[in-house]
Design goal:
With 372 residues, the chain is an alpha+beta fold. It has helices spanning 24-33, 87-97, 138-150, 156-162, 235-246, 295-298, 302-314, 318-326, 336-343, 346-352, 357-364; strands spanning 12-17, 41-60, 65-86, 103-112, 117-125, 172-175, 194-203, 205-208, 213-216, 224-232, 258-265, 273-280, 289-290. The strands form four sheets. The chain has a five-stranded antiparallel beta sheet with strand order 1-3-2-4-5. Strands 6-10-7 form a three-stranded antiparallel beta sheet. A three-stranded antiparallel beta sheet has the order 9-8-13, with no helix packed on it.
């Protein structure tokens, strides 16, 4: 795997930090003490290591307790940062991590903030040194926490690992084709416990592959793909099935048709969510584009779906819903009655994006409309 920088492959690489080396001040101080003087450690991007979790599995005498490791776990992601590093920095990292005795180099693919895969070097605890759990010292945990704060990384997973607790899996998904509500394969998802589902959008373009669509990237921020955002109770079991359905064979294996990656999902009301999505592998984008970016609209099923959705959220009493919505919108068109008239009919306003299904769900308290 080639993870060297294309402009200077002999001297620079991409390195993924997930523990104490996120604390750049601490890392540079260590380098100075050990006479590594020509260190390049340049921030590139935030990223996640998919299908892994944080764990304290190795006892360090110098740290006074357990130190961080990553281990495989389907459906979980380890947050961290990609740095560009030179040979001197790699030599320092090898020395600092005690490679290959205590930690060993591992080449993996991480997912950056726009869902692209980046091949990187990281370090994992050697099998001969790995234990089930070693409690970290307060001083070591403080160093890691400072690095997390420096890079504005949520520390929830870190603190769970420190307490020997497993963090909940990443249970959010975005579906844009036959797995959406009302589509041919949606029934498969019911087996995994749908906790929440609302209409949503992501950036990208939609290709027509015949019996199903494929999501690809777009450089144009105006290009949107419509679909359903879902949270599933049994995310790991769902991923196992979805990987088979979508032809995803793993991050270190070739010939997948789709890749399971991460994306930012717009579910409305200004609160984007990060979710799993299956994106068409680069080089397979020969199919025609669906201009609307909407699989339901492409097959002339969108209007019928929206009508059923409104019925599910209103229980047949649209007038009551209109009065409730008028009091919860961040805007008003004149009087309350004028606002209600503006919102009617709800099917049209939902279609236009004036209101979101998330807002409907907040009012109806029905977060699984048409999912049963």
């Amino acid at each position: 795997m080639d993870n060297a920088d294309s402009t200077n492959s002999r001297t620079t690489m991409f390195y993924f930090a997930y523990g104490s080396n996120l604390n750049e001040e601490n890392f540079h101080q260590w380098c100075e003490r050990h006479r590594f003087t020509n260190i390049q450690l340049d921030y590139v991007a935030h990223a996640e290591l998919p299908d892994h979790e944080l764990a304290f599995t190795c006892e360090s005498h110098s740290r006074g307790g357990g130190v961080l490791d990553v281990r495989p776990r389907l459906g979980q992601c380890v947050p961290g940062v990609i740095f560009q590093v030179n040979e001197e920095a790699i030599a320092a990292l090898d020395a600092k991590e005690g490679a290959p005795t205590w930690y060993e180099r591992k080449y993996v693919k991480v997912i950056n903030g726009i869902g692209d895969f980046v091949p990187v070097l990281t370090y994992v605890v050697s099998d001969s040194k790995r234990q089930k759990y070693v409690k970290p010292s307060d001083s070591y945990l403080k160093i890691v926490q400072q690095g997390y704060r420096q890079h504005r990384i949520n520390g929830r997973k870190l603190m769970a690992a420190a307490a020997n607790r497993r963090s909940p899996l990443e249970d959010r998904f975005f579906f844009y084709g036959t797995l959406m509500r009302g589509e041919s394969r949606f029934q498969l998802l019911k087996n995994f416990g749908i906790k929440c589902t609302v209409m949503a959008e992501v950036f990208g373009r939609l290709l027509n592959l015949g019996v199903h669509p494929g999501l690809i990237d777009s450089d144009n921020s105006d290009h949107r793909v419509s679909g359903d955002f879902m949270r599933l109770s049994r995310a790991s079991s769902a991923i196992k099935l979805l990987d088979r359905i979508e032809g995803f064979f793993g991050y270190d294996r070739p010939h997948s048709l789709f890749q399971r990656t991460r994306t930012i999902v717009d579910i409305g009301e200004g609160e984007p969510q990060q979710a799993w999505v299956y994106r068409l592998v680069a080089g397979t984008e020969q199919a025609p584009i669906i201009p609307s970016g909407d699989w339901r609209l492409h097959h002339q099923r969108r209007t019928t779906f929206l009508e059923k959705l409104i019925e599910a959220h209103t229980g047949g009493d649209e007038t009551r819903m209109l009065y409730q919505l008028a009091g919860k919108l961040p805007f008003r068109i004149g009087s309350r009655e004028e606002t209600i008239r503006f919102l009617s009919p709800l099917t049209q306003r939902l279609d236009e994006g004036v209101i979101t299904e998330r807002k409907l769900a907040e009012v109806s308290e029905n977060w699984t409309a048409l999912a049963n």
